Amino acid sequence: MGSVTVYGPPISTAVSRVLACLLEKDVDFKLVNVDMAKGQHKSPDYLKLQPFGQVPAFQDEHATLFESRAICRYICDKYANRGNQSLFGRNGGGPAERAQVEQWLEAESQSFNPPSSALVFQLAFAPRMGLAQDPAAIELNQAKLAKVLDVYERRLGESRFLAGDEFALADLAHLPNAHYICAAGKDDMFASRKNVARWWEEISTRPSWKKVVDMFSAPPA
Amino acid sequence: MLATLSGYRAVSRPQRTLPFPSPSRSPIAWSTGTQEMGSVTVYGPPISPAVSRVLACLLEKDVVFNLVNIDMSKAQHKSPDFLKIQPFGQVPAFQDEHTTLFESRAICRYICDKYADRGNRSLLGRRGGGLVERAHVEQWLEAEGQSFNPPSSTLVFQLAFAPHMGLPQDAAAILLNEGKLAKVLDVYERRLEESRFLAGDVFSLADLSHLPNGRYVRAGGKVELFTSRKNVARWWEEISMRPSWQKVVEMQPAPPSF
After folding, report:
1. Looking at A76-169, which runs of residues are DSSP E strands?
2. Positive or negative, the Cα torsion across B181, A46, A170, B112?
3. What is the pTM of this model?
4. B109–A110: do the CB atoms touch at under 8 Å?
């Protein structure tokens, strides 16, 4: 096993997306904290790893990467024979099955992520950073997210997980933002939709995700 | 009215049997080579940035396709039949004999994987480059999707589409997003000092993905964002002059203000 390192605080949604993937794939890793309150993510050394000054960054013996979803794709391909082997469709499923996962991973990225990220900031991070919440932004993004979840509700009425019958990277990608929204008390958006509620219960109780949540409250390294 | 492209055969194809209403005009296939007429269909107006992203990819890959227009001014994208293939009611949607897909970047990845041996074979990294090279392309494709796309999409709507839809422009939104896009292009400027294209020395899907919004942002009056940055200017010149992109631009009707 090579030397896999993830840089960033585990409470970051994007960092935790990568951690969840590594745990699903049974890949050992080192987590190096980046103290964003001290501006470490904008230090010249860190910018060499991540030129946008964001978290996470990732390294193994072959590559240095950024963007959590790109890192997750690499982990799934690189460690194809470890841990959960159907995160990108089942082995032997071919390009069409992988494409179904890609489609819902892009839906997460383009449709679910923008409004849910705004809510995560408003509900979970603004308070702990001592910033005032913006009720208009909360209302606007809740309405946008509701429309997305309505589409998910219909989809999950015909399919156990988003891309098909197996838990995949497309489902995993939703875990961080949805976790914080539910933890902040807005879980009614998920609970009020029967299929979404079922799906959320199933994906959020996976052992890999529970381990990531435990890391949120671990003392910083 | 779509012009016949020089060097292309425009061929009328019979309407596919789909649970879908007749499009406003019959589908037209573009043939770029000797591939027999396949069953690749893209749904959506070529003026849409996301649709044009897929068209650019198909043309790079030399894959024959049908383009079925979706008249968004008549809300065809919200019709029950269209929602069956694109549940978010957005364009594009894509079909071939194996699958139905949405989300332009997912469609592009599928085209690159499925038609790996056709046309440009290094859009997801060169053959010998392995997983690491693919990962570098994916990284910059995600950067496009997460960092470049949001501010540029807002500018595209404000500068290119709102005027045609009779909607007022929002000066504050334009200013805010111009500032955000400038910061992203500053990162690109440094990256493109050390690399000919974003992911490396070879044009890839990561570069291609920037073409649709880049075109409209520039045409909408913000060309200076690109031209004031030496490496970004060089990069834009090179990627926008590719024959595949030039063909896509020809397919897009020219709005009066461009």
Report:
1. none
2. positive
3. 0.92
4. no
**What is the ipTM, given to two decimal places?**
0.96
Q: Is A120 exposed, middle or buried, given 0-12, 13-18 or 19+ CB atoms closer than 10 A?
A: buried
Say whether residue B131 is in contact with chain A using an 8 A CB cutoff.
Answer: yes
Model confidence over A31-51: pLDDT tens digits?
Answer: 999 999 999 999 999 999 999
Q: How far, in Å, CA of A11 to CA of A168, rounded?
A: 22
The pairing of beta strand B41-43 with beta strand B65-68? parallel
Q: What's the confidence (pLDDT) of residue A90?
A: 86
How many Cβ atoms sit within 10 Å of the Cβ of residue A207? 9
Q: Which residues are paired to A65 by β-bridges? A: A58
Cβ neighbours around B255 below 10 Å, total: 13
Spatial separation of the C-alpha atoms in residues B56 and B49, rounded to whole Å: 10
- Assigned token pair, A124: 């979970």
Amino acid at the residue A61: E
Rounded Cα–Cα distance for residues A68 and A173 (Å)? 9
Omega before B92 within 30 of 0, i.e. cis: yes
Return the residue matching tokens 């539910």: A182
pLDDT per position as a tens digit, B197-225: 999 999 999 999 999 999 999 999 999 99
Chain B residues near residue A148 by CB distance under 8 angstroms: 88
CA dist B151 and B146 (Å) reads: 10
| Coil, helix or strand at residue B39 | coil
- In terms of C-beta distances under 8 Å and separation of at least 24 residues, what long-range contacts does A137-140 make, across chains too? none
Residues of chain B with Cβ-Cβ distance to A154 below 8 Å are: 87
